[in-house]
Specification:
single chain; seven-stranded mixed β-sheet; flavin adenine dinucleotide binding; 400 residues; six-stranded parallel β-sheet; alpha/beta
Length: 400
């Protein structure tokens, strides 16, 4: 692998069998698999000045390894995803736990046995818990819609408490919506966990943190003799798509193109912008060993920010007398202002706009949109990886 900044003099796209736009999960997975599986010479174009996409981590001035674009918690049910990523990193045994600050009291979320007793008191909380067990059994996640369907005033009380104190204000901050604008189907999915397991992903068989960080994992993934990575290169400067073909450097390109960027931007947003929510992430270094009891504390009933992350707790880094935290302030995404588009706003009119952009490229046999931005959907890291593995399966089969 070579990583360099900018395109070198004499760069010719036709020297490569595949052009990959973006060096995050989707792009890096496809680049690696096609290089080693088909012997493709692969060119990766990355607009930022680093690889790893939003999973990029780096040491701050205090020597703390931070997730620059917000916390990334690895967890998956997919053995295939885990086996692929584990080729490039070992994993720590970190198990993610989240507390919610509810009117000054820290309670586990998803709401569980301990949360009930903290919210309603020992005796009443235990009584409600036994009702939940009788209705649904133990060690199960139950959406609050199912609590309401039982038409039981006690279960309704639990559902209302979780909705008002865990979900409502947090969601209003996250998505910039008023209560009447929040889709009832989303409300109904808010879970209560009937049990004592306080892990955020209790059922995921594979979870942890990469032992040397995400960026190091990506360095290893892209470390192949047939992969060249070019940073600070905006693919739109050399790549265009029309009704007939993909053009790179002014010439029709005959190789494969894996595109992981925003699809609307590829066309200059001529049909309109696909909307996203963004985040203003504010880091603070503190002269103390530890700031909070768990890696993430959600602020569900107060504050303008949604949560505080403390990275040392997640990574297991040992560094005495100093820690770095980060507060997340949700905000609308505004194109051209240096913001990061984090969350696609999945509403019917936005999905229809995406479909119109997608229709422009679906007939092209060598252009392949993949990933969170190119598919206009929210993916966890394992979901992006799975999508890229599926696409690379198709490409490898086509070139077998």
């Amino acid at each position: 692998m070579s990583i360099r900044t900018g395109l070198p003099e004499g760069f010719r796209a036709e020297d490569y069998d595949m052009v990959v736009v973006g060096a995050g999960y989707a792009g890096a997975v496809c680049a690696r698999r096609l290089a080693e599986g088909c012997g493709f010479k692969v060119c990766v174009l990355e607009r930022r000045d680093h690889i790893a996409g939003n999973a990029y981590d780096a040491y701050d001035d205090a020597g703390i390894l931070v997730h620059v674009y917000g916390p990334h918690i690895y967890h998956t049910f997919s053995e295939r995803v885990d086996q692929f990523l584990s080729r490039f990193t070992g994993w720590t045994d970190y198990q993610h736990r989240v507390l919610a600050d509810i009117h000054g009291t820290l309670m586990p979320v998803p709401f569980n046995h301990a949360s009930l007793k903290l919210a309603f008191g020992e005796e009443r909380g235990e009584e409600l818990y036994r009702k939940l067990v009788a209705a649904f059994g133990e060690n199960k996640k139950v959406p609050i819609m199912q609590l309401r369907e039982k038409n039981d005033p006690d279960l309704q009380e639990v559902a209302d408490y979780v909705y008002e104190n865990v979900f409502l204000y947090y969601t209003m901050k996250q998505w910039g919506k008023t209560p009447d604008e929040i889709d009832p189907s989303i409300t109904g999915r808010v879970p209560v966990f009937i049990g004592d397991d306080d892990r955020y992903f209790p059922a995921a068989p594979y979870q942890g943190m990469p032992e040397q960080g995400y960026t190091r994992m990506f360095e290893r993934m892209l470390d192949h003799d047939l992969i060249d990575v070019f940073l600070e290169v905006d693919a739109r400067d050399i790549l265009t798509v029309d009704d007939e073909h993909v053009t790179v450097q002014g010439k029709p390109y005959g190789g494969e193109v894996v595109y992981t960027g925003p699809l609307d931007e590829l066309f200059g947003c001529d049909l309109g912008d696909l909307p996203y929510r963004s985040l203003d992430m504010r880091f603070e270094t503190l002269d103390m060993d530890r700031f909070q009891p768990v890696g993430t504390v959600n602020y569900t009933t107060s504050e303008d920010f949604t949560r505080i992350t403390e990275f040392k707790i997640m990574t297991g880094q040992v560094k005495e007398g100093v820690t770095t935290i980060m507060r997340e302030y949700p905000q609308p995404y505004e194109r051209g202002r240096g913001m990061t588009p984090y969350y696609a706003i999945i509403e019917p009119q936005n999905e229809e706009l995406y479909r119109r952009y997608r229709d422009r490229v679906d007939h092209l046999t060598n252009f392949h949109p993949v990933g969170r931005l190119a598919e206009y959907r929210y993916y966890d890291m394992d979901g992006v990886t799975a999508s890229a593995l599926a696409l690379s399966d198709e490409l490898m089969a086509a070139h077998a």
